[in-house]
Amino acid sequence: MKKTAAFVLTGLFFLTGAVVDAAGEQAPQKVVDLANTTLAAFGADPVIVKAVRDENAKGKTLAQIQEKDAAWKAFAGHADYMKAIMDSECGTHIRKIQENAPYYTEIFVMDNQGANVAMTDKTSDYWQGDEAKFQKSYAAGAVFIDEVKFDDSTQSYQVQVSVPVMDNGKAIGAITFGIDVDKL
């Protein structure tokens, strides 16, 4: 009986270790510091706030968003509506932010349901509302720092940092920054 218990405990130990190893790495302190200062401040940027407020006012339903999300994922290139999001006033604004910091791999802004409002590059999907980056920043009204992961599209180790977009003390959307941890 003792051998069986020891075997089970040893197996649990290795299983637990494997789970920890499979998980991503925590963001370095430089990312945490950047997230809680510079990036958090972008949540109150007037251009970003206005774009999110205007998008929220359109009153899109979740069904409409999910329909657009399906079309988005099925389209290999850049459709006109995707380019419009990138070339909008907010899209141009966040691209300038990205150009001023070579460690920003991507920036995208989401409305109150997690749908894209603006982006520097095409995202893999239109609707972020079902993902932690949106849920943990928008719903909590707090900065969310994901784990460091290898990103195939940029061929770099990056971490996504998401902050709520705030209007009069209330979260109205979120903005996500991809950070190349090796360039920071």
Structure keywords:
184 residues; alpha+beta; Beta-Lactamase; 7 helices; 6 strands; 46% helix; disordered N terminus
Explain the overall architecture.
β5 and β6 (about 170-180) form a beta hairpin. The termini are far apart. The protein has one domain (about 25-180): Beta-Lactamase (2-Layer Sandwich), CATH 3.30.450. Helices cover about 45% and strands about 20% of the residues. The protein has about 180 residues and is α+β, with helices and mostly antiparallel strands. The chain has 7 helices and 6 strands.
Short note summarizing the structure:
The chain has one domain: PAS domain (Beta-Lactamase), CATH 3.30.450.20. The protein is built from 7 helices and 6 strands, in the order H-H-H-H-H-H-E-E-H-E-E-E-E.
Query: What's the CATH H-level superfamily name?
Result: PAS domain
The biggest sheet, with number of strands, parallel, antiparallel or mixed sense and barrel status, is: 6 strands, antiparallel
The number of helical segments is 7
**Which consecutive residue ranges, at least 5 long each, have pLDDT under 50?**
1-22
In percent terms, what proportion of residues is strand?
15-25%
Gross CATH architecture: 2-Layer Sandwich
Query: How many separate domains make up the residues?
Result: 1
SSE run: HHHHHHEEHEEEE
| Structural class by SSE content | alpha+beta
Shape: globular
Radius of gyration: 19 Å
- CATH class descriptor: Alpha Beta
Q: Termini separation (Å)?
A: 54 Å
- CATH fold title: Beta-Lactamase
How many beta-strand elements? 6
- Look at the structure and give the mean pLDDT: 87
Helicity, as a percent range: 40-55%
